[in-house]
Amino acid sequence: MSKISLTTTLPYVNADPHVGFALEVVQADAVARYHRLMGHEVFFNTGTDEHGQKIFERAQAAGEEPQAYVDRYAARFELLREKLDLSYDAFIRTTDEKHVAAAQEFWRRCAARGDIYKKDYQVKYCVGCELEKQESELVDDFCPFHPGKELEERNEENYFFRFSAYQERLLALYDERPDFVVPQHRLNEIRAFIERGPQDFSISRLKEKMSWGIPVPDDDDHVMYVWFDALVNYISTLDWPDEKHSEWWPSVQFAGKDNLRQQAAMWQAMLLSAGVEPSKQIFIHGFITSGGQKMSKSVGNVIAPFDIVEQYGTEALRYYLMRHVHPSEDSDMTMERFHECYTANLVNGLGNLVSRVMKLAETHLDVPVERPETAAFPKEYTEAIERYEFNVAMDMIWKRVGDADETMSTEQPFKLVKGSEEEVKRGKEVIAALVLELYAIGRMLQPFMPATSDAVKATVLANTKPEGMFPRIDSVA
């Protein structure tokens, strides 16, 4: 039995969870569930990023101590476990004692390698990203991810990480492992960034200006820069520096496209500096927009996962994210579109099919259909998941739903069971075949819609018609 570990990024706890992070964590959950289905041992990590200037400022604005502020918001993210039916094994917070200790030890090892030094610097800084920005990255003098947010000009003494020393080793990593970053064009993007020459980056902040951070070892005047601290969670969650971390490391990492540089370059250089093996693979997803625009409270187009679950249920949201949001490119989402997909494909599609088939089975089959030995999953299905093409795998499932529906229409078992003895026999055979197909569909749904999967399999085993799986909802709230 092989082992695999997976981790999401750690979302900043400066606001409620948004649907973009819901996408990331459901993607990771689907892969974790898939590998468990295939008989692998899995360690799945997520958590919250709780240091940095944005959080410090938000806590001040709210009149709270930073720790109280992050405790309140971290609880909102932990609620996603229930609301999204997540199967993670660890929820790490960057304020956890073991993480703080690991981050400080990581700093010491990079310093011992000669990769940390102190200097005065002046830089353009995006508070939204908590990142320095080079001129080549800016669009009309703004950060492309936070247009309209003025960049800060910073001039102070900080510690720096010697990122420039790792250009050759990073390029060699990308060349040796052509699937290190998925999709391919993201690997090409980060390779081009490193080829231009990585610049050393600041990894500390003066405590007198921004005290909310992990103390720098042996220097009471500085705290760690939030990115240096937060990235270490991927190994601190595995109890690094204890050697037992190697049972699970390296991990597969899930991240959004705005995290490409941090995950695929900065973090890898830091790992090399500390003498830790690079990550196993990094999957980069796109953004979810709404009505053609980036989600924004001021625009009024923010889609909250908690609100969707409240109206439509967990399985409906997981379905939409896995089938109708592109795994790695930007996708537009509106509640009108969500409602259409829910009604057409869950209420009138899968839900209606299961109800019709199992009503016939309950009425005309004396005993539950005897299932054959568990069959292997279709190769095209497993390959799609392993390429992170979740929408392709889901389309395969819904093709089978459509084919089963077509069989109901063409074979008409509901009429055959009312005919001659020969027709009744044939009708029962068709019903039994459809029941077996429902079971196969249920198994394939397990990584994506686990509760629906369990419900479909249970109704087949009990040979009874289920209660309404997906209630009809008249309109978008």
Structure in words:
The chain is α/β, with parallel strands linked by helices and 477 residues long. It folds into two domains: 3-286, HUPs (Rossmann fold); 334-462, Orthogonal Bundle (Isoleucyl-tRNA Synthetase, Domain 1), CATH 1.10.730.10. It is 48% helix and 15% strand. A six-stranded parallel sheet has the order 3-2-1-12-13-7, sandwiched between helices. Helix 10 links the parallel strand 12 and strand 13. Helix 7 (184-195) crosses helix 10 (260-274). The relative contact order is 0.11.
- What percent of residues adopt helix (DSSP H or I)? 40-55%
- Order of strands side by side in the largest beta sheet? 3-2-1-12-13-7
Tally of individual helices: 18
CATH homologous superfamily caption of the largest domain: HUPs
Net shape: elongated
- Going by helix content, strand content and strand pairing, the class is alpha/beta
In CATH, the architecture of the largest domain is 3-Layer(aba) Sandwich
In percent, how much strand structure appears in the residues? 15-25%
Please summarize the sheet with the most strands. Answer: 6 strands, parallel
How many strands appear in the DSSP assignment? Answer: 16
- Whole-number count of domains: 2
Give average pLDDT, whole number. Answer: 93
- Please name the CATH topology of the largest domain: Rossmann fold
Unreliable stretches (pLDDT < 50, length at least 5) are none
CATH top level class name of the largest domain: Alpha Beta
Ends apart, CA distance between termini: 47 Å
Q: What Rg is obtained from the alpha carbons, in whole angstroms?
A: 26 Å
